[in-house]
Design goal:
Layout lengths: L22 E5 L5 E5 L3 E4 L4 E5 L3 E6 L4 H4 L8 H13 L10 E5 L2 E10 L5 E9 L5 E9 L6 H17 L11 E3 L7 E3 L8 E4 L6 E8 L5 E5 L1 H4 L8 E4 L4 E3 L45 E7 L2 E6 L5 E4 H4 L8 E9 L4 E4 L2 E6 L2 E5 L6 E9 L2 E12 L2 E13 L1
Antiparallel strand pairs: 1-2, 3-4, 4-5, 5-9, 6-7, 7-8, 8-9, 10-13, 10-16, 11-12, 13-14, 14-15, 17-20, 17-26, 18-19, 18-26, 20-21, 21-22, 22-23, 23-24, 24-25, 25-26
Protein backbone atom coordinates (compact mmCIF):
# COMPACT_ATOMS: atom_id res chain seq x y z
CA UNK A 1 0.00 0.00 0.00
CA UNK A 2 1.25 3.52 -0.80
CA UNK A 3 2.81 5.56 2.02
CA UNK A 4 0.38 8.27 3.10
CA UNK A 5 2.87 10.33 5.10
CA UNK A 6 2.85 13.00 2.40
CA UNK A 7 -0.77 13.92 3.21
CA UNK A 8 0.10 14.77 6.80
CA UNK A 9 0.62 18.50 7.08
CA UNK A 10 1.42 18.19 10.79
CA UNK A 11 2.17 15.55 13.39
CA UNK A 12 -0.83 13.67 14.81
CA UNK A 13 -2.55 15.20 17.79
CA UNK A 14 -3.11 13.12 20.93
CA UNK A 15 -6.69 12.53 22.06
CA UNK A 16 -8.04 13.98 25.31
CA UNK A 17 -7.27 12.04 28.45
CA UNK A 18 -10.07 10.39 30.37
CA UNK A 19 -9.48 12.52 33.50
CA UNK A 20 -10.90 16.04 33.28
CA UNK A 21 -9.46 19.13 35.00
CA UNK A 22 -11.79 20.91 37.49
CA UNK A 23 -13.41 23.81 35.66
CA UNK A 24 -15.40 27.00 36.17
CA UNK A 25 -18.01 28.54 33.88
CA UNK A 26 -17.34 31.80 32.02
CA UNK A 27 -20.39 33.34 30.29
CA UNK A 28 -19.99 34.90 26.86
CA UNK A 29 -22.80 36.73 25.03
CA UNK A 30 -26.22 35.25 24.44
CA UNK A 31 -26.48 31.63 25.55
CA UNK A 32 -22.79 30.93 24.92
CA UNK A 33 -20.40 30.04 27.70
CA UNK A 34 -17.27 27.98 28.21
CA UNK A 35 -15.70 25.94 30.97
CA UNK A 36 -12.05 26.77 31.74
CA UNK A 37 -9.68 25.25 34.33
CA UNK A 38 -10.26 26.61 37.83
CA UNK A 39 -6.76 28.09 37.98
CA UNK A 40 -7.13 30.10 34.77
CA UNK A 41 -7.80 33.83 34.63
CA UNK A 42 -10.24 35.39 32.15
CA UNK A 43 -10.42 38.86 30.62
CA UNK A 44 -13.25 40.36 28.58
CA UNK A 45 -11.73 42.88 26.15
CA UNK A 46 -15.20 44.40 25.53
CA UNK A 47 -14.79 44.06 21.78
CA UNK A 48 -15.91 40.46 21.36
CA UNK A 49 -12.49 39.13 22.33
CA UNK A 50 -11.86 37.02 25.42
CA UNK A 51 -8.42 36.12 26.79
CA UNK A 52 -7.92 33.14 29.08
CA UNK A 53 -5.02 31.30 30.62
CA UNK A 54 -2.41 30.88 33.34
CA UNK A 55 1.21 31.97 33.05
CA UNK A 56 2.98 30.89 29.85
CA UNK A 57 -0.28 29.65 28.30
CA UNK A 58 -2.84 31.72 26.44
CA UNK A 59 -6.19 31.15 24.73
CA UNK A 60 -7.81 33.94 22.71
CA UNK A 61 -11.45 33.31 21.81
CA UNK A 62 -13.83 35.42 19.73
CA UNK A 63 -17.47 35.64 20.73
CA UNK A 64 -19.36 33.76 17.96
CA UNK A 65 -22.04 36.49 17.84
CA UNK A 66 -19.46 39.26 17.44
CA UNK A 67 -17.49 37.77 14.53
CA UNK A 68 -19.79 39.44 11.91
CA UNK A 69 -18.96 42.79 13.56
CA UNK A 70 -15.23 42.17 13.10
CA UNK A 71 -15.21 41.07 9.48
CA UNK A 72 -17.80 40.37 6.78
CA UNK A 73 -17.27 36.79 5.59
CA UNK A 74 -19.43 35.34 2.76
CA UNK A 75 -21.71 32.50 3.84
CA UNK A 76 -20.16 30.17 1.24
CA UNK A 77 -16.56 30.88 2.31
CA UNK A 78 -14.38 27.82 2.81
CA UNK A 79 -13.16 27.12 6.37
CA UNK A 80 -9.58 28.13 5.48
CA UNK A 81 -10.85 31.38 3.95
CA UNK A 82 -12.65 32.20 7.20
CA UNK A 83 -9.43 31.71 9.15
CA UNK A 84 -7.48 33.97 6.78
CA UNK A 85 -10.15 36.70 6.82
CA UNK A 86 -10.26 36.78 10.63
CA UNK A 87 -6.48 36.77 11.03
CA UNK A 88 -6.14 39.69 8.59
CA UNK A 89 -8.90 41.61 10.41
CA UNK A 90 -7.38 41.00 13.86
CA UNK A 91 -3.64 41.17 13.18
CA UNK A 92 -3.56 43.21 9.98
CA UNK A 93 -1.70 40.55 7.99
CA UNK A 94 -1.21 36.83 7.50
CA UNK A 95 1.91 35.69 9.36
CA UNK A 96 1.81 32.20 7.86
CA UNK A 97 1.60 30.56 4.45
CA UNK A 98 -2.09 30.02 3.47
CA UNK A 99 -1.03 26.65 2.08
CA UNK A 100 -0.26 25.51 5.65
CA UNK A 101 -3.91 25.02 6.65
CA UNK A 102 -4.73 21.61 8.14
CA UNK A 103 -7.98 20.03 9.30
CA UNK A 104 -8.36 18.56 12.77
CA UNK A 105 -11.11 17.59 15.18
CA UNK A 106 -11.07 19.78 18.31
CA UNK A 107 -13.75 19.51 20.96
CA UNK A 108 -15.76 17.19 18.71
CA UNK A 109 -15.83 19.80 15.92
CA UNK A 110 -13.86 19.78 12.68
CA UNK A 111 -11.63 22.84 12.57
CA UNK A 112 -9.48 24.45 9.90
CA UNK A 113 -6.30 25.74 11.51
CA UNK A 114 -2.66 26.66 11.12
CA UNK A 115 0.36 26.15 13.39
CA UNK A 116 2.85 28.92 14.08
CA UNK A 117 5.96 29.87 16.05
CA UNK A 118 6.09 33.16 18.00
CA UNK A 119 8.34 35.15 20.32
CA UNK A 120 11.67 36.93 19.85
CA UNK A 121 13.51 33.67 20.33
CA UNK A 122 10.79 31.39 18.97
CA UNK A 123 9.98 30.42 22.54
CA UNK A 124 6.25 30.05 21.89
CA UNK A 125 4.21 27.87 19.56
CA UNK A 126 0.52 28.00 18.82
CA UNK A 127 -2.38 27.02 16.63
CA UNK A 128 -5.28 29.18 15.52
CA UNK A 129 -8.33 28.35 13.54
CA UNK A 130 -12.08 28.29 13.03
CA UNK A 131 -14.59 25.56 13.94
CA UNK A 132 -18.25 25.39 12.95
CA UNK A 133 -20.50 25.20 16.03
CA UNK A 134 -23.65 23.03 16.20
CA UNK A 135 -25.90 26.09 15.71
CA UNK A 136 -24.09 26.89 12.42
CA UNK A 137 -22.13 29.83 13.83
CA UNK A 138 -18.33 29.81 14.02
CA UNK A 139 -15.79 29.84 16.81
CA UNK A 140 -12.37 31.44 16.33
CA UNK A 141 -9.60 30.40 18.71
CA UNK A 142 -5.87 31.09 19.10
CA UNK A 143 -4.07 28.82 21.57
CA UNK A 144 -0.39 29.41 22.47
CA UNK A 145 2.01 27.66 24.85
CA UNK A 146 5.73 27.43 25.49
CA UNK A 147 7.63 25.76 22.67
CA UNK A 148 7.39 21.98 22.91
CA UNK A 149 4.28 21.95 25.11
CA UNK A 150 1.50 22.72 22.62
CA UNK A 151 0.65 19.12 21.86
CA UNK A 152 1.23 17.59 25.25
CA UNK A 153 -1.56 15.26 26.37
CA UNK A 154 -2.58 17.71 29.09
CA UNK A 155 -2.76 20.80 26.86
CA UNK A 156 -4.50 18.94 24.05
CA UNK A 157 -7.13 17.70 26.50
CA UNK A 158 -7.63 21.19 27.99
CA UNK A 159 -8.26 22.79 24.59
CA UNK A 160 -10.57 19.95 23.57
CA UNK A 161 -12.61 20.30 26.75
CA UNK A 162 -12.88 24.09 26.44
CA UNK A 163 -14.04 23.95 22.83
CA UNK A 164 -16.44 21.08 23.59
CA UNK A 165 -17.97 23.15 26.41
CA UNK A 166 -18.55 26.03 23.98
CA UNK A 167 -20.15 23.67 21.45
CA UNK A 168 -22.47 22.33 24.15
CA UNK A 169 -24.00 25.80 24.59
CA UNK A 170 -24.47 26.37 20.85
CA UNK A 171 -27.90 24.75 20.69
CA UNK A 172 -29.28 24.51 17.15
CA UNK A 173 -32.82 25.75 16.50
CA UNK A 174 -35.20 25.53 13.57
CA UNK A 175 -37.56 28.16 12.23
CA UNK A 176 -40.70 26.26 13.16
CA UNK A 177 -39.32 24.50 16.21
CA UNK A 178 -40.49 21.15 14.77
CA UNK A 179 -37.81 18.47 14.77
CA UNK A 180 -36.93 16.97 11.40
CA UNK A 181 -37.91 13.29 11.22
CA UNK A 182 -37.50 10.89 8.31
CA UNK A 183 -38.99 7.51 7.51
CA UNK A 184 -39.57 4.99 4.74
CA UNK A 185 -42.63 2.89 4.00
CA UNK A 186 -40.82 -0.04 2.38
CA UNK A 187 -37.87 -2.09 3.57
CA UNK A 188 -34.48 -1.95 1.81
CA UNK A 189 -35.20 1.30 -0.05
CA UNK A 190 -32.97 3.78 1.84
CA UNK A 191 -29.35 2.73 2.32
CA UNK A 192 -27.62 3.89 5.50
CA UNK A 193 -24.05 5.00 4.81
CA UNK A 194 -21.01 5.97 6.87
CA UNK A 195 -20.89 9.40 5.22
CA UNK A 196 -22.74 11.61 2.71
CA UNK A 197 -22.23 10.23 -0.80
CA UNK A 198 -22.86 7.11 -2.82
CA UNK A 199 -19.12 6.45 -2.64
CA UNK A 200 -19.48 5.88 1.12
CA UNK A 201 -19.99 2.36 2.40
CA UNK A 202 -23.52 1.15 3.03
CA UNK A 203 -23.92 -0.59 6.39
CA UNK A 204 -27.67 -1.27 6.54
CA UNK A 205 -31.10 -0.07 5.38
CA UNK A 206 -33.47 2.26 7.17
CA UNK A 207 -36.15 0.27 8.96
CA UNK A 208 -39.66 0.91 7.54
CA UNK A 209 -42.53 2.49 9.44
CA UNK A 210 -40.38 4.26 12.06
CA UNK A 211 -39.54 7.96 12.44
CA UNK A 212 -35.82 8.71 12.84
CA UNK A 213 -34.29 11.95 14.09
CA UNK A 214 -32.17 14.03 11.70
CA UNK A 215 -29.16 15.61 13.45
CA UNK A 216 -27.40 17.28 10.51
CA UNK A 217 -27.47 17.98 6.79
CA UNK A 218 -24.84 18.11 4.04
CA UNK A 219 -24.89 19.03 0.35
CA UNK A 220 -22.30 17.18 -1.73
CA UNK A 221 -20.33 18.66 -4.62
CA UNK A 222 -22.70 16.95 -7.07
CA UNK A 223 -25.67 18.74 -5.49
CA UNK A 224 -27.07 15.66 -3.75
CA UNK A 225 -28.49 16.27 -0.27
CA UNK A 226 -27.83 14.01 2.72
CA UNK A 227 -29.20 13.72 6.24
CA UNK A 228 -27.14 12.67 9.22
CA UNK A 229 -29.21 10.48 11.56
CA UNK A 230 -29.05 9.67 15.23
CA UNK A 231 -26.90 6.54 15.12
CA UNK A 232 -28.39 5.17 18.35
CA UNK A 233 -31.80 5.19 16.65
CA UNK A 234 -31.00 4.25 13.07
CA UNK A 235 -28.15 1.74 13.39
CA UNK A 236 -27.27 1.00 17.01
CA UNK A 237 -25.41 -2.22 16.14
CA UNK A 238 -23.23 -0.67 13.43
CA UNK A 239 -19.52 -0.10 14.00
CA UNK A 240 -19.71 3.10 11.93
CA UNK A 241 -19.19 6.33 13.87
CA UNK A 242 -21.80 8.23 11.82
CA UNK A 243 -24.93 7.27 9.87
CA UNK A 244 -26.17 9.15 6.78
CA UNK A 245 -29.04 8.70 4.33
CA UNK A 246 -29.87 10.35 1.00
CA UNK A 247 -32.64 12.94 1.34
CA UNK A 248 -34.29 11.73 -1.86
CA UNK A 249 -34.70 8.24 -0.37
CA UNK A 250 -36.80 9.23 2.65
CA UNK A 251 -40.11 10.86 3.59
CA UNK A 252 -39.84 13.98 5.79
CA UNK A 253 -41.85 15.55 8.60
CA UNK A 254 -40.98 18.70 10.50
CA UNK A 255 -38.79 21.62 9.41
CA UNK A 256 -36.10 19.70 7.55
CA UNK A 257 -35.00 22.73 5.51
CA UNK A 258 -33.75 24.36 8.71
CA UNK A 259 -31.60 21.45 9.91
CA UNK A 260 -28.12 22.58 10.90
CA UNK A 261 -25.29 21.91 8.46
CA UNK A 262 -22.92 19.10 9.41
CA UNK A 263 -19.37 18.44 8.26
CA UNK A 264 -18.70 15.38 6.13
CA UNK A 265 -16.35 12.97 7.90
CA UNK A 266 -13.14 11.85 6.17
CA UNK A 267 -13.36 8.58 4.31
CA UNK A 268 -12.15 5.91 6.71
CA UNK A 269 -12.92 2.18 6.89
CA UNK A 270 -15.64 0.63 9.01
CA UNK A 271 -13.63 -1.54 11.35
CA UNK A 272 -16.32 -3.88 12.55
CA UNK A 273 -15.22 -7.17 14.03
CA UNK A 274 -15.75 -10.23 11.82
CA UNK A 275 -18.32 -12.71 13.08
CA UNK A 276 -17.11 -15.66 15.07
CA UNK A 277 -16.10 -18.48 12.76
CA UNK A 278 -17.66 -21.88 13.11
CA UNK A 279 -14.32 -23.42 12.28
CA UNK A 280 -11.98 -23.28 9.32
CA UNK A 281 -13.10 -26.72 8.15
CA UNK A 282 -16.74 -25.68 7.95
CA UNK A 283 -17.65 -27.56 11.13
CA UNK A 284 -20.63 -26.64 13.28
CA UNK A 285 -20.98 -25.58 16.90
CA UNK A 286 -24.49 -27.00 17.06
CA UNK A 287 -26.33 -24.02 15.53
CA UNK A 288 -26.81 -23.34 11.81
CA UNK A 289 -24.09 -21.08 10.38
CA UNK A 290 -25.42 -17.72 9.13
CA UNK A 291 -25.62 -17.24 5.38
CA UNK A 292 -26.35 -14.10 3.34
CA UNK A 293 -29.68 -13.63 1.60
CA UNK A 294 -28.12 -14.39 -1.81
CA UNK A 295 -25.55 -17.19 -1.77
CA UNK A 296 -23.05 -16.71 -4.62
CA UNK A 297 -22.52 -19.56 -7.10
CA UNK A 298 -19.10 -21.15 -7.14
CA UNK A 299 -17.00 -20.87 -10.28
CA UNK A 300 -15.09 -18.28 -12.31
CA UNK A 301 -15.89 -14.64 -11.46
CA UNK A 302 -14.70 -11.34 -12.95
CA UNK A 303 -13.63 -8.61 -10.52
CA UNK A 304 -13.60 -4.97 -11.68
CA UNK A 305 -11.81 -2.54 -9.37
CA UNK A 306 -12.46 1.20 -9.64
CA UNK A 307 -9.61 3.10 -11.26
CA UNK A 308 -9.16 5.34 -8.22
CA UNK A 309 -9.43 4.77 -4.50
CA UNK A 310 -9.58 6.98 -1.43
CA UNK A 311 -6.82 7.49 1.12
CA UNK A 312 -7.14 9.26 4.43
CA UNK A 313 -5.62 9.58 7.88
CA UNK A 314 -7.68 10.22 11.01
CA UNK A 315 -8.20 13.96 11.42
CA UNK A 316 -7.06 14.79 7.86
CA UNK A 317 -8.79 15.30 4.54
CA UNK A 318 -9.42 12.49 2.07
CA UNK A 319 -7.35 12.30 -1.13
CA UNK A 320 -8.00 10.38 -4.35
CA UNK A 321 -5.21 8.01 -5.40
CA UNK A 322 -4.92 5.60 -8.39
CA UNK A 323 -5.84 2.10 -7.26
CA UNK A 324 -2.52 0.69 -8.45
CA UNK A 325 -0.67 3.01 -6.07
CA UNK A 326 -2.83 2.08 -3.10
CA UNK A 327 -2.49 -1.68 -3.50
CA UNK A 328 0.55 -3.34 -5.03
CA UNK A 329 -1.30 -6.50 -6.09
CA UNK A 330 -3.70 -4.77 -8.49
CA UNK A 331 -3.91 -5.95 -12.12
CA UNK A 332 -2.76 -3.33 -14.61
CA UNK A 333 -6.25 -3.13 -16.16
CA UNK A 334 -8.00 -3.18 -12.75
CA UNK A 335 -9.92 -6.21 -14.03
CA UNK A 336 -9.13 -9.83 -13.24
CA UNK A 337 -10.76 -13.23 -13.10
CA UNK A 338 -10.68 -15.40 -10.02
CA UNK A 339 -12.16 -18.70 -8.89
CA UNK A 340 -14.74 -18.44 -6.13
CA UNK A 341 -15.39 -21.42 -3.86
CA UNK A 342 -18.45 -21.65 -1.63
CA UNK A 343 -18.67 -24.06 1.32
CA UNK A 344 -20.78 -24.83 4.37
CA UNK A 345 -24.01 -24.03 2.57
CA UNK A 346 -22.90 -20.48 1.77
CA UNK A 347 -21.60 -19.65 5.24
CA UNK A 348 -18.04 -19.56 3.94
CA UNK A 349 -16.46 -18.39 0.68
CA UNK A 350 -12.97 -17.83 -0.64
CA UNK A 351 -11.23 -16.19 -3.58
CA UNK A 352 -7.89 -14.48 -4.18
CA UNK A 353 -6.54 -16.56 -1.33
CA UNK A 354 -8.83 -14.81 1.16
CA UNK A 355 -11.18 -16.84 3.41
CA UNK A 356 -14.57 -15.19 3.96
CA UNK A 357 -17.27 -15.66 6.59
CA UNK A 358 -20.91 -14.68 6.11
CA UNK A 359 -21.81 -11.37 7.77
CA UNK A 360 -25.16 -9.63 7.31
CA UNK A 361 -26.01 -9.40 3.62
CA UNK A 362 -22.57 -10.49 2.50
CA UNK A 363 -19.14 -11.57 3.66
CA UNK A 364 -16.15 -10.33 5.62
CA UNK A 365 -12.56 -11.44 5.01
CA UNK A 366 -8.98 -10.46 5.79
CA UNK A 367 -5.87 -11.12 3.71
CA UNK A 368 -3.85 -13.81 5.54
CA UNK A 369 -0.52 -12.09 4.79
CA UNK A 370 -0.46 -9.86 7.88
CA UNK A 371 -1.00 -6.58 5.98
CA UNK A 372 -4.36 -5.88 7.69
CA UNK A 373 -6.15 -5.64 4.34
CA UNK A 374 -9.86 -6.38 4.66
CA UNK A 375 -12.79 -7.07 2.35
CA UNK A 376 -16.40 -6.06 2.97
CA UNK A 377 -18.71 -7.67 0.40
CA UNK A 378 -22.43 -7.40 -0.28
CA UNK A 379 -23.98 -10.38 -2.05
CA UNK A 380 -26.54 -8.82 -4.38
CA UNK A 381 -27.59 -11.94 -6.30
CA UNK A 382 -26.07 -15.37 -6.78
CA UNK A 383 -24.12 -13.98 -9.75
CA UNK A 384 -23.41 -10.39 -8.61
CA UNK A 385 -21.47 -8.97 -5.65
CA UNK A 386 -20.15 -5.52 -4.71
CA UNK A 387 -17.69 -4.49 -2.06
CA UNK A 388 -14.68 -2.58 -0.88
CA UNK A 389 -11.09 -3.53 -0.15
CA UNK A 390 -9.57 -1.62 2.77
CA UNK A 391 -5.88 -1.47 3.66
CA UNK A 392 -4.99 -0.15 7.12
CA UNK A 393 -1.66 1.25 8.25
CA UNK A 394 -0.38 3.54 11.00
CA UNK A 395 1.83 6.55 10.21
CA UNK A 396 3.55 8.33 13.10
CA UNK A 397 0.89 6.98 15.44
CA UNK A 398 -2.04 8.10 13.25
CA UNK A 399 -4.43 5.47 11.80
CA UNK A 400 -4.59 5.71 8.00
CA UNK A 401 -6.42 3.72 5.37
CA UNK A 402 -6.80 3.19 1.67
CA UNK A 403 -10.13 2.05 0.20
CA UNK A 404 -11.09 0.91 -3.28
CA UNK A 405 -14.55 -0.18 -4.42
CA UNK A 406 -15.13 -3.13 -6.74
CA UNK A 407 -17.86 -5.17 -8.35
CA UNK A 408 -17.96 -8.90 -9.17
CA UNK A 409 -19.90 -10.89 -11.72
CA UNK A 410 -19.87 -14.62 -12.33
CA UNK A 411 -18.37 -15.63 -15.64
Amino acid sequence: MVSLSGVLAAQPRPQPTADSTPTKRVPLSGAYSIQIPVGWESQDQNDGTYVFGPNQELLILLDPLRIPDIVDIPDDALPAERVDALVEAIYGELFYDPADHVSEVIGGMRASLVYYIAGENNEFEGKLGVARLPDDTFAYFDYMTLEGELDSDENTAVLDEIMASLAATAVPTTASGAACLVSVATAQTAALRVGPGINRSSVAYLAPGIDFTVTGAFTADDGSEWFQLDKAEAAPASAASEIWVARLDVDETGDCDAVQAANAPPIVPILSAPPASSGGDGGSSGEPAPVPGAVPRAGLWTITFQANGNASCEGFENIVVPTGELFSNMPASNVEQTNVTVTNGGANMSFRGVPFTAAGNGYFGTYPDGTNTQFYITSVTETTMTGQMVGNITIDGTPCSGTVLFSMRRG
